[in-house]
Write a structure and sequence with these properties.
Blueprint (H helix, E strand, L loop, with lengths): L9 H9 L5 H19 L2 E4 L1 H11 L14 E5 L26 H8 L3 E6 L11 E2 L3 E2 L1 E2 L2 E5 L5 H8 L5 E6 L5 H7 L2 E4 L27 E6 L2 H11 L15 E4 L10 H16 L3 E3 L8 H17 L12 H21 L5 E4 L18 E4 L2 E4 L4 H8 L5 E9 L2 E8 L5 H15 L2
Parallel strand pairs: 2-3, 11-12, 11-13
Antiparallel strand pairs: 1-3, 4-5, 6-7, 8-10, 9-10, 9-16, 13-17, 14-15, 16-17
């Protein structure tokens, strides 16, 4: 797969700064120059905080990184929905364009504590509720591989900024593949975390009036990068609990590939690169099964996932169809989720990881239709767009970690693959994604 940039990653940048080859201000100035040169047609970095970033960098120029600052001097951006003190958080709504937040979100606090310098914020759809990033406040983000196509959503600006080389790292959020589909569409690594691993404090809709709210079920925060090592580091500095690694060589692993779903057919543009990746994994000595009686009822899982996600995103208010979920039905969905989690836990007693498409298609042309009314061609057949979320729900409904690794391209557009693991195996998912990327790069 073609890379759009040869810019160094986060760890490489931090290493150059620590060794004195590069100063924090030089790193920040270079990133700002890249944004100013590249972002016009892409429109990813929509909130810019360059003056404060330069001031922060100058304050670090005479210092050395502390032992707990592995990102010392590294410039990066974050998704627009994360509060950054002094910057607006709009969730894509004009009515909140002047909503300047006073405190950093927990993720931003931890990134800054690790030495990172936040240059600004990246684009989203309204309410983070689409697989493309276009809103009346900041306009539309375009895919850097093909400007006529979407960069994904809701973390579309995040992935586009990383893929184009404007920044080495980013932080997004995910409930319906909002990290995974942009990573897939843009050819970068993205990690959907185990539910509860990374704090969502300060990632709150402005309608809450600045008040902290209960974490939305299913919704998580997670990082983007251009390599697995950077992805791991970003997760380690933001995780709220210690994570362990269980290193294992690819040849010693047993994978389950789920490439068919009763709800959503996979287009050849995705199945082709994924099948080639599965063959390479088998050639490396790993066992790849194509079926198992341990797989939960995927049609039922999707049927339970969609109403729980709608209830979570609307916080119990009427959905697009005007329906309101009852408290009794909500608890029934939580019961179904618990049973589903147990079923996946049983499956991971036999398999190390599950491999699956992030979505059944590659980046699609810009489309103004609502996500519920949108249609898309899959293998030449007109299909409901919303059914594609069945592939997101594989990991989201049971609260599992999932890393998207780039595995190839189709028609010049990137294609990724999900590496799904058991709960809390986040670092192992990322490590395996890195091993897969290594064997595919030859």
């Amino acid at each position: 797969m073609k890379n759009l940039t040869d810019e160094p990653g986060a760890i490489a940048t931090a290493s150059a700064i620590a060794s004195g080859q590069l100063s924090p201000l030089e790193a920040v100035d270079a990133a700002i120059a890249r944004i100013e040169a590249l972002d016009g047609p892409i429109n990813a970095v929509v909130v810019r905080d360059f003056d404060r970033a330069r001031d922060t960098a100058r304050s670090l120029d005479s210092k050395r990184p502390a032992s707990d600052q592995p990102l010392f001097g590294v410039p990066m951006t974050v998704k627009e929905s994360f509060n950054v003190a002094g910057l607006p958080t709009t969730f894509g709504h004009l009515q909140f364009k002047d909503n300047i937040t006073q405190t950093d979100s927990r993720v931003v606090e931890l990134l800054k504590r690790s030495g990172a310098i936040v240059l600004g914020k990246t684009n989203v759809p309204p309410d983070l509720a689409d697989l493309q990033s276009n809103n009346p406040v900041y306009g539309r983000t375009n895919n850097p591989h093909d400007l006529s196509r979407v960069a994904g959503g809701s973390s579309g600006g995040s992935a586009a900024a990383v893929a184009s080389g404007m920044v080495a790292a980013e932080y997004g959020s995910d409930i319906g593949s909002s990290i995974r589909n942009p990573a897939h569409f843009n050819g970068v690594f993205g990690h959907k975390t185990t539910f509860g691993l990374v704090s969502k404090r300060g990632h709150t809709h402005p309608m809450a009036g600045g008040l902290d709210v209960h974490d939305t079920p299913l919704s998580v925060a997670g990082p983007f990068a251009r390599n697995a090592e950077d992805l791991s580091l970003l997760l380690e500095v933001t995780a709220e609990r210690p994570l362990t690694r269980s290193p294992k060589a690819l040849k010693d692993m047993r994978f389950l590939a789920i490439v068919e779903h009763p709800v959503s057919e996979v287009d050849a543009s995705v199945s082709g690169p994924i099948e080639a990746a599965l063959s390479a994994i088998e050639s490396a000595g790993a066992q790849v099964d194509r079926n198992s009686n341990l797989i939960p009822d995927l049609a039922q899982q999707h049927a339970d996932y969609m109403p729980l996600m709608r209830a979570a995103m609307t916080r119990g208010q009427p959905g697009p169809d005007g329906q309101v979920i009852s408290l009794a039905d909500y608890f029934l969905l939580l019961d179904a989720q618990a049973r589903n989690r147990y079923a996946w836990a049983d499956l991971f007693g036999h398999y190390d990881f599950v491999l699956a498409p992030p979505l059944p298609f590659v980046a699609y042309p810009h489309d103004s239709a609502s996500i519920f009314e949108r249609r898309i061609a899959i293998n030449g057949k007109d299909s409901p767009f919303i059914d594609a979320l069945a592939w997101a729900g594989l990991a989201t409904f049971p609260n599992l970690p999932s890393t998207v690794v780039p595995v190839g391209e189709s028609g010049g557009l990137p294609c990724g693959m999900q590496v799904i693991g058991s709960e809390w195996s986040d670092l192992d998912c990322i490590d395996v994604a890195g091993q897969i990327a290594q064997i595919l790069s030859g």
